[in-house]
Amino acid sequence: MASTVLVITALEDVTADLVIAALNERGVHVARVDPADIGPHLAFAFHLSPGSTVWSGSLRTTSREVRLEEVAAVYFRRPTPYTSRFVHLSVQEREFAVAEARHGLGGVLNGLSGVRYVNHPLAVAHAEFKPRQLRQFTELGLQIPPTLVTNDVDAARNFAELHGHVVYKTFRGLPRGEGGCAGAVWTQRIDAATLDESIAVTAHLFQAEIPKRSDVRVTVVGRRVFAQEIITPDRALDWRRGDWDQLAYGSVAVPPRIEAALQSYLRAFGLVFGCFDFALTGCADEPEAWWAIECNPNGQWGWLPDADAIAGAFADVLTEKGGGQP
Predict the structure, then answer these.
(1) b/e sequence 208-242, b meaning 16+ C-beta within 10 Å
(2) pLDDT at 322
(3) Strands (E), 12-95
């Protein structure tokens, strides 16, 4: 009987470490694999026989071997991009090798039969588009800030004049630079007078600023919900920008109507897990005080005060105990 949890992630991943530790405490067999190790440190041989509907074969790392037939669940976290494995190749060779690895190794790992994925990478990819997220929030009756997606400077200026206080956000995180260092573009207030024709270069996301008193990070794993109010010392616009050691947290109860909407949201995207961000404008027990900002379908939660409980929820879902897909 299949009983192994396959964890697909990079070597350095503290969040995955917490889940693996929780699984180990339950005596669950875990195999950790980073597909970008393809080569001498990761070998595989997969077979599909005529008439068969299930791939068989094995993955072999430097420390262990796991047969596909043994895999009961896949925790898909944050594997290293394949491109890092092939940086020594020419551009054409690198693009070819990356595509072959993604479609070959990735194609098998993303299509295991009868296996629970948390979350499936295709579901994550579909759920990462913020315009789709915002539309789903409104379809479920959640409040969102007035939003504009544009590359038209006049539209941006008109939006800023209409709403007065406007913020700019990115659709995606800032990619790594040539030196490999990661950066970030934080949520920032916009002065309409500074908007110019450079907006035409690409798409921009503008929203009316919500007069929040705090932020709430809601982590949903299966049917379990964990919510932490996040307060910055200076009431910062973006809590991620400052010193995380100075953040104050408090556990809050999510209003039933909001919680039901979040479960429906996960079902709509085929997700088992998601990290939701809200702006809170009043008391947490008032649904009208909750403003939906975004959902990260592969978000971070390892720094939160209830991280151990969240890790336990992941272990339960991956072993089909006390959770399950919503």
Answers:
(1) bbbebebbbbbbbbbbbbbbbbbbbeeebeebeee
(2) 43
(3) 30-33, 42-47, 56-61, 65-67, 71-76
Question: Order of strands across the sheet with 204-208?
Answer: 147-150, 204-208, 166-169, 188-190
Write the CB contacts of 318 (distance below 8 Å, at least 6 apart in sequence): 5, 19, 23, 28, 73, 75, 116, 118
DSSP state, 81? P
Q: 113 is written with which tokens?
A: 């039969």
- The verdict on pTM exceeding 0.85 is yes
Provide the CB-side half-sphere exposure for 312 (13 A, CA).
9
DSSP 283: -
- Which has the closest alpha carbon to 188: 206, 161, 215, 171? 206
Residues in the chain: 326
The string of pLDDT tens digits covering residues 32-58 is 999 999 999 999 999 999 988 899 999
Mean pLDDT of 121-143: 97
The residues facing 227 across adjacent strands are 218
DSSP 31-54: EEE-GGGTBTTEEEEEE--TT--S
Dihedral of alpha carbons 295, 299, 303, 309, sign: positive
DSSP tag of 241: G
The mean pLDDT of 185-210, rounded to a whole number, is 92
To which residue do tokens 């379809």 refer? 139
